[in-house]
Amino acid sequence: MVRKKRERAQSPPRRSEPRASSGGRSAAARNVLRGVETREAILAAAARLFVSGDYRTVTMRRIAREAACSHAAIFLYFASKDELLRAVAGPPLEELRERFALILDRRASAGRKLRLVSREFVAFCLARRTMYRVYFASNAARVDVRQEAGTLNEARIRLFELLAGLVRETLGLQEKDRRALQCSRIYFYMLLGIVSTYDQSEETTEVLLERLSPTFDAAFDVGVAGLRNFVNR
Amino acid sequence: MVRKKRERAQSPPRRSEPRASSGGRSAAARNVLRGVETREAILAAAARLFVSGDYRTVTMRRIAREAACSHAAIFLYFASKDELLRAVAGPPLEELRERFALILDRRASAGRKLRLVSREFVAFCLARRTMYRVYFASNAARVDVRQEAGTLNEARIRLFELLAGLVRETLGLQEKDRRALQCSRIYFYMLLGIVSTYDQSEETTEVLLERLSPTFDAAFDVGVAGLRNFVNR
DNA sequence: GTTTTTTCCTAACCATTGGTTATAAGATTA
DNA sequence: TAATCTTATAACCAATGGTTAGGAAAAAAC
Fold first, then answer.
1. Which residues surround strand D, with CB < 7 Å?
2. CATH of B27-77 among 1.20.1300, 3.30.200, 3.40.1800, 1.10.10
3. Chain A residues inside the 8 Å CB shell of B191
4. How many angstroms separate the CA atoms of A37 and B143, rounded?
5. How confident is the model at residue A202 (pLDDT cuts 50, 70, 90)?
6. d(CA B224, CA B170)
7. For residue range B57-112, what is the model confidence (pLDDT) as tens digits?
8. Do B186 and A218 touch (CB under 8 A)?
9. Are residues B42 and B73 in contact, defined by beta-carbon separation less than 8 angstroms?
10. Is A186's CB within 8 Å of B225's CB?
């Protein structure tokens, strides 16, 4: 088929105003920044939209409108919608890790810390239902990870190891104990089960936590008690 | 905008051969059947495709090709892709219920039955990863259910009640015991956690079960032991 | 100060999707 | 034979993720 020669419409007005003043930076710095600013605007818009809507209903064009650029511009900074989601997913995960670290630094029993961390984890995932799947339910064994995905995966692995360590300590297991891996896996099942049960719920995080916190706490207890029984039998 | 008058291309050849011979039925019965047969063909094709690919990658056009009809024909029998998935999802769920019933009829302890049912459940969900979400992770509280979805929901609720009963019996709880609901919820978290952890894995069901069956069994044990501890404290 | 290069961005495009509609072939009925 | 009813399709639609030719402005080179 003959491709129709493309004809341009009359030159349209360009963007009416620059995105931001860029303060008193040098001309060179401002130039570099213009691109970075667009990237940031896209990330911010995507972050805002991805936490409210789900992956499918959030469109590139909607994100672009929110970021005040054309949807084609997004592909200048992110190879695909998927990569954009991953890029958005990174910082919150880091934030969660920091909150975990804060809890770990407290002077409390491993069991107590595990419970606090578990609560934090569930609240985090429920508040970001679109992303929890990207974070935790994607196959860790996947090897076809690009750079961005790689760092995300690393962050996730660190989080998991941290949690696994806490489970081990709570149960009084040695790191090299064969049952340690199995036990932390099982504890994760519990956590992921909670999250994925309410994944598609339309209730807000607050309502869910208000209503189900006691059940979640009970679940944490059940997990630990069951695991204790499992390793001591 | 003025809608361009639609012009039809020259009359194309119709479907070259009828779908099936319809045997020696009367003319009237054959006529009625032709439609039913198309419906069945669509259902069969969709069922085949939905178990291998996931919801997004299975397109209406692909299903149509597999069912040897136009993709528009599908909309004659199913209002939307979603409804088609639900229609496909129904029978297997019923089959699972029957397998559950078979286990329930055995002469064994409630604990033993619970374990068998749990295994069955996990294997079922892992074998139908596209659909498990439709089955079990959609919000039960949703009220905007149409007829088809309604029956599906009922089937799901029956399954849940059956499992909950088994959990109750295993723990020796009365039906009206306030903790019964909480306990079965927690047990479900465990089951759903297992399934959703491997939801996006690319390994086959066989490989997953081969590798992780012991861990799954351990998880069931942990759940029951933890719940025992929970109700007896 | 003028030209060249580089950076950043967009309009128009593409293929594909879920879904709708005008139209028609074939069977049934009158 | 004519009217109707059933079953189906080709062509259409709006929207989506993604690509590309081209251009405006800033920076660099002269």
1. A 6, 8, 11, 14, 27-28, 30-31, 58-62, 71-72, 75, 79-82; B 3-4, 6-9, 12, 14-15, 19, 31-32, 34-35, 37-38, 68-70, 72-73, 76
2. 1.10.10
3. 193
4. 44
5. confident
6. 8
7. 999 999 999 999 999 999 999 999 999 999 999 899 889 999 999 999 999 999 99
8. yes
9. yes
10. no
Dump strand ranges (E) for A16-71.
none
Sign, CA torsion B17/B23/B24/B25: negative
Q: Of residues A134 and A127, which shows the higher confidence score?
A: A127
Q: Which two tokens stand for residue B213?
A: 């069956």
Q: Classify A81-232 by CATH class.
A: mainly alpha
Query: In which band, very low, low, confident or very high, does the pLDDT at B134 lie, cut at 50, 70 and 90?
Result: confident
Tell me how close the Cα of B139 comes to any Cα of chain A, in angstroms: 5
Q: Please, where in chain B does CATH 1.10.357.10 lie?
A: 82-232
pTM of the predicted protein model: 0.83
Looking at domain B82-232, which of 1.10.357.10, 1.10.3720.10, 2.30.110.10, 2.60.40.1080 is its CATH number?
1.10.357.10
Q: Is A46 exposed, middle or buried (0-12, 13-18, 19+ CB in 10 A)?
A: buried
From the list A188, A221, A223, which residue is nearest B197 (CB)?
A188
CB atoms within 10 A of CB B172: 11
